[in-house]
Each structure stands twice: as C-alpha cells, then as structure tokens.
Amino acid sequence: MSDLQNTQDDVKAENRIFPPPAEFAASAAISGMDAYHALCKEAEQDYEGFWGRLAKENLTWHKPFESVLNESNVPFYRWFEDGLLNASYNCLDVNLQNGNAEKVALIFEADDGTVTKVTYRELHAKVCQFANGLKSLGIVKGDRVVIYMPMSVEGVVAMQACARIGATHSVVFGGFSAKSLQERIVDVGAVAVITADEQVRGGKHLPLKSIVDEAIAMGDCEKVRNVVIYRRTGGQIGFTAGRDLWMHELVANQAAECEPEWVDAEHPLFILYTSGSTGKPKGVQHSTGGYLLWAKLTMKWTFDIKPDDVFWCTADIGWVTGHSYIAYGPLAMGATEIVFEGVPTYPNAGRFWSMIEKHKATIFYTAPTAIRSLIKASDADPAVHPAKYDISSLRLLGSVGEPINPEAWMWYHRNVGQERCPIVDTFWQTETGGHMMTPLPGATPLVPGSCTLPLPGIMAAIVDETGNDLPNGQGGILVVKRPWPSMIRTIWGDPERFKKSYFPEEFGGKLYLAGDGAIRNKDTAYFTITGRIDDVLNVSGHRMGTMEIESALVANPLVAEAAVVGKPDDTTGEAICAFVVLKGARPTGDEAKKIATELRNWVAKEIGPIAKPKEIRFGDNLPKTRSGKIMRRLLRVLAKGEAITQDVSTLENPAILEQLKQAQ
Ligand code: PRX
C-alpha cells in the first residue's frame, strides 16, 4: 500500500443539499429513503436470499440456479453457479417476447450527424447473423475475441454476438496503440479480432485496421485466425487473404436466428484490461450471470429507467461504462439508447446539447471531464451554451469516472439539469462491473461532490491500514466487506495477482480493496471519494498506471530513468507529469522542448495518445532516498508547483529539487 496522503486531506464542508423532486420520487423504482433502507435491511438480514430473489426476478434463466453464493474458495467467489443463461438472450430475445420487438433499441448518430435507428427485432437479427458468421469461422464457446472498433451499431452487435455464442470478448479502446493492442491480443489468446477499416471522430478519419495489422505483425499473435472488418469509411486498407474478411460478406448468407449458447452463470462474459499500480494492464474477468444482473438492476435503481426513456451514456464501448451502460444494461432493460460515434466538440461544443434536443434524451450520463471542458467552451462561446438548446426532455443526469468537483456539479445542475433533474454521481470501477455507491434519484438527498451511499447489498466501508473500521469523519481506505454478484472474478491468467491486488493478506484476505481513499461525512454518513491511494492516475476519466507510462518512457533510447506523477488539472481532473533523466546531458531551452515533444509522441505510440504526458521535466537525477527509492511524494509537490515543506533530510541529492521545478 502506498501513501494515504490524499485521504487525510480535509474534505471541504459542503452544506448544500438537494432533496429529490417530489414528482420524481413519486414514480421512482426506489421511492424515498425508507424504501432504500428497507432494501439494505433485506440484504443485511439475508444476504443470499436478497441476491437470489433479485437474480430470479430480473434475469431469464434457461436452467434456474440453486446455489446463490459459493464461498468455498475465497476470494474466488461463485454466484448462481449451477444456473444456465445467455446474456444476449436476456438483452434481445426477451424483448421480442415482451412486446418490445418494434421498439427502437439503438439510435445511432454518426460523427457527421447521420442517424440510424435499429429496433429490437432488427438488432436481434443482426446479432444472430453475426453470431452465425462467427460460428462459421469455427469460433466456439470459451474462445476469446478481441474487438477493436469505433462506436457503432456494429460494435454493440459484435459484443452481443460473442455473448450469444459463449465467446468471451475483450474490447480494446480504439485510441490504444498497436503495441497496447498486441499485448492484449497476446495476453488474452484471441482467436479473432473484429475491427473496422477506419473510425471517424471530429471529422477526421483515423485508422483501425492498419493498427491491427501492425499489432499482429509484432508477433506472438499466431492464435489469431481471422480479422473481421466492418466497412465504416471505405478507406484503403491492407487485406491478408485467408485471414481477413469483411463483416458484411460474413453475414450475407447467415440465418437471422441463432440458438444461444447456454452458459453457466460463472462463464466469462468478457475480459477488459485496466491499469493497476504495478506491471502490465490486467485483464479483469467478469462473469455472465452476476454481471448482467447488476448491469440491469442498476439501470432500474440508479437510472430509474422507464419504458419511454431515451437513455444516453456518452462513454466508449472500450471502457467498462460502455459495457455496462451501452452494450448490456440498457438492452437488458428493453430501453431506447443513443450511441454516438463522435466527440463532444464537433462540429462545435454544443454537440451534446443539440443531440439531446434532437433525440429528446431523457437520461444523460457523462464524465466530469466532459462537463468541465464544455463549461470552458460555453464560457468562451455563448452560442454553444446549453441554454441555447431545448434540452427540456431531460429528467435525470449522471456522472462517472472521476470525482466531480462541486463547481462542475453546480453548473451541470443549473445549466443542464435546469435545477430540475437529479444528478447521480456514480462511483464504481472496471472491477465492480456496475455502480457501487450512488444517489438514488427518487430517494437520496444530493450533496455536490459526494457519491452519497452504497447501493443496497453493497457493503462498503472505510478502514485504516490494518483493516479496522474508521469512524465517520476520518479518511481511510475504501473497502467492500462482502462479495457481490458483479464483482471481478479474477485477473485473466494471473489468479495470484488478483488475490494480491484486491484481497491482500494484510487485510485478512476477505476485504475487497477498491484502491481509492474515501471519507464519510460525520452527519450524513455520505461517502466522498478522495482519490486513488495507489499509483494509478485518472486523466479525463481514463485510468492509467504511472508505471506503465514510466516503462514506455524508459523504453526510449534517450531515456535513462523516469518517474510519473499526477497533478491536478482543471479540465482533465489529473494531468500526467513526467520527470525524466536522459542518458546524455540534461537538455535545456529549445533542445529540451524538442525532446519533450519527441517523448510525448513516443508514449502515444507505445500506449496511446491518452497517455501522453502533459508536462515533461528534465533533471540530472531524480530525488531519491539513500536506499535509492524515488520520492514520489516530493515529485507530486513539485508537479503542483508548490513549495516543499516536507522533511528532505533522507534525500540523497536535495539539490535536484531546484532543477525539477522547471517545466518544459
Ligand atoms: O478512482 C475511482 C474513479 O475511477 C476509478 C475506476 O476507474 P475505471 O476502472 O476506469 O472505471 C471508470 C468507470 C466506472 C475509481 O477507482 N471513479 C470512478 N467513478 C468515480 C470515481 N471517483 C470519484 N467519483 C466517482 N463517481
């Protein structure tokens, strides 16, 4: 465990409280705090009974489960393990049977504004055809398929088709580099990659297929038999005969029916890579039954989804938010949802508001970083302010991915929510599969900047470094005390790392460690997340390990040593600040600028543009203890531009601090 410094910081008192609007509460799935407490009590009194009831009521089982929770091999918990189901069946077929066949499932808006609507019947047919196509390639239950696609109907179809045949998908965000893609293809042992010729974002065409080619050419991808390509732009691509196929040709003669592969509830639905504090990104493995239950239930509880809602989650399918709240949760609820290909600033920064107006979105779920950048944009250009659009269709707003600062919360509340819409600040992680702590819009009084209380059945707590409970008002380590159905099952191929990372022995091996610090308010007992307590950064809601970026930097032939820390940033939440020692002399002036640019581009190539350091500082050395340990705490202070007040007597080379004050 690294330092707890963040969690000790005083969280500024926030006295504003916003009770749920009466008319919202009147029709909400969980209406009023009594209803919330009743559910919490049900879970406390009969944990298995609670989850068993919800799983029976919310999912359609091919074979019902008898066992709710198997705890015989802690922390490898097994939920509903003797039940059989299929995720795609639950998202699609169920909707054909319950009167939603002609309902629009997806409203897809392309970068250029072109809109395509897909009904549940059409989506079912597309998924079945593609599932049959994948089967014709010899892909079977348990195979892993990497999906490297733009935001598209086809991306959702690809995920659902894998689920239908029991293949485990691993979606790689389209902004990752060839090297990152290759590492994931190799680690997961993919038999196929599904991609597109190009993606279109902000009016630009960006390659995808050529990056797949590059990744495979890097080696160790022999298991990949096929690359299936969705033709998005018709741009020029290389084509490897015998390996590459067009998606439209693959599905051309396939039947629009495909019997789902019934899998047991613990069957891995997907593996999604995310960053940890050490080593390479880890493949977070999720189950089918427990995961889907929570994706669906949180749509009901947190988003209070109703048949007439138009739901819009702006995340990318490459992140867990896009899995739970685009590809699975909304469809399992039979909802209508918007899928957006583009970026919030194209053709101008009013794009989100104009899309809400156009599609009459009722629930809007986005990241604080997007809100902050749109605040700036509308300050600069009043024409793109939400007030210029008719966004009166909105009834609920959500926030995800990083702490939302009270100022951004208030702007969101006033200008987007028109002081009418509750805001659900949803705290969760790739590992948790769905929301963990969030207000319930028809029950919980809101406090800006707080994710308020855990959902019923989620036993969140704050403990000290020995695992003992801390009183409200005292910052500490966020843990979850009981397993829950949608939790991570293991790290793909590395069960030991799973145990060590999330259920460390120091805490008795049974507490789930989120990796975040938190504090509970003395009066309300509300939780506020105080930030990561490990070496993980959150830049624009994207999670990155400092070590990954450091490894990328030292892989550059010019670099001898590098240390990466986060620094607060008004727009992106945190920004990456890299301290670099070159093999040659410390550069200054234009030379330093040139090398800094070169290193930024290098990191973009090694990991992806999202990992580019915002700031690079060169030194002759890094601040180290006499035993050679880099003092990151000091680097964090330097990155913030603050004076060092800590004791530096253990420092081997105090003079180095002066040098590192300078940004390039
Ligand atoms: O630090 C927390 C932050 O994002 C981390 C999880 O990142 P990731 O696995 O990429 O998932 C992001 C989407 C769920 C957490 O450990 N985080 C996420 N949501 C919030 C948050 N921090 C504060 N408030 C939130 N609502």
TrEMBL record:
Does the record bear Ligase in its keywords? yes
PTM (free text)? Acetylated. Deacetylation by the SIR2-homolog deacetylase activates the enzyme.
The record ties this protein, via InterPro entries, to: Ac_CoA_lig, ACAS_N, AMP-bd_C, AMP-bd_C_sf, AMP-binding_CS, AMP-dep_synth/lig_dom, ANL_N_sf
- Identify the residues that bind CoA: R201, G202, G203, K204, T321, S540
Q: Which residues form the AMP-binding enzyme C-terminal domain?
A: 548-629
Is Protein biosynthesis tagged as a keyword? no
Acetyl-coenzyme A synthetase N-terminal domain location:
36-91
Tell me the Pfam families matching this sequence: ACAS_N, AMP-binding, AMP-binding_C
Residues that hold Mg(2+) according to the record: V554, V559
- Which keywords label this protein? Acetylation, ATP-binding, Ligase, Magnesium, Metal-binding, Nucleotide-binding
Q: Which domain of life is it from?
A: Bacteria
Q: Single GO cellular component annotation?
A: cytosol
Protein family: Belongs to the ATP-dependent AMP-binding enzyme family.
Q: What is this protein called?
A: Acetyl-coenzyme A synthetase
Query: Which species does this protein come from?
Result: Undibacterium luofuense
- Recorded name of the encoding gene: acs
